[in-house]
Amino acid sequence: MDIEINRQISVAIENQPGRLGQIGRLLAQQGIDINAFSVIDNVEQAMVRLVTEEPAAARTALEQAGLPVVEVDVLMITMEPGPGGLAFVGETLASAEINIEYAYSSAARDGNLGRLVVKTANPRHAQAVLQQTHGENA
């Protein structure tokens, strides 16, 4: 289990056809790879959350297109295939009284490692707790 802190970019967009594609195209034109993303639907707008290889360049591209951007630190946890990864993260953080504000992921399948993105109030503390506990259980 690899646990890194990455910058996440959040963008509020109108909930209309083509808006997510616009964000994807803007980043693709800059050669920016998206490592993880989530879209949360609200009635008239959506919140797009992105973790990219180049967060500063992604922010610049999105802001130049007139999109509002917010950045925060999140944990990017590489998960091994098989059951129990989410349980380990959730229970470990809960035992340290660290709340998970939100999370999104890709599944680990067919030998590929999944990624879990976790937002907490203090990602550095959460990272330290997870690394220490994972090391003790390894």
Question: Can you tell me about this structure?
Answer:
With 138 residues, the chain is an alpha+beta fold. A 6-stranded antiparallel sheet has the order 2-3-1-4-6-5. It contains 4 helices and 6 strands, in the order βαββαβαββα. The chain starts with a strand and ends with a helix. The radius of gyration is 16 Å and the shape is elongated. The mean pLDDT is 90. Helices cover 34% and strands 37% of the residues. The protein folds into 2 domains: 64 residues, VC0802-like, CATH 3.30.2130; 64 residues, ACT domain (Alpha-Beta Plaits, 2-Layer Sandwich), CATH 3.30.70. A hairpin with a 7-residue loop joins β5 and β6.
Shape designation = elongated
SS strand fraction: 35-45%
Q: Tell me the distance between the termini.
A: 10 Å
Instruction: Give the H and E element order.
Output: EHEEHEHEEH
CATH superfamily of the largest domain: VC0802-like
The CATH topology of the largest domain is what? VC0802-like
Instruction: Summarize the biggest pleated sheet.
Output: 6 strands, antiparallel
Average pLDDT number: 90
Q: In order across it, which strands form the biggest sheet?
A: 2-3-1-4-6-5
Residue runs with pLDDT of under 50 for 5 or more positions = none
Summarize the structure.
With 138 residues, the chain is an alpha+beta fold. It is built from four helices and six strands. It has helices at 19-29, 55-64, 85-95, 123-137; strands at residues 2-14, 34-41, 45-52, 69-79, 102-106, 114-119.
Question: Which SSEs are present, and which pair or pack?
Answer:
Layout: E1 2-14, H1 19-29, E2 34-41, E3 45-52, H2 55-64, E4 69-79, H3 85-95, E5 102-106, E6 114-119, H4 123-137
Antiparallel strand pairs: 1-3, 1-4, 2-3, 4-6, 5-6
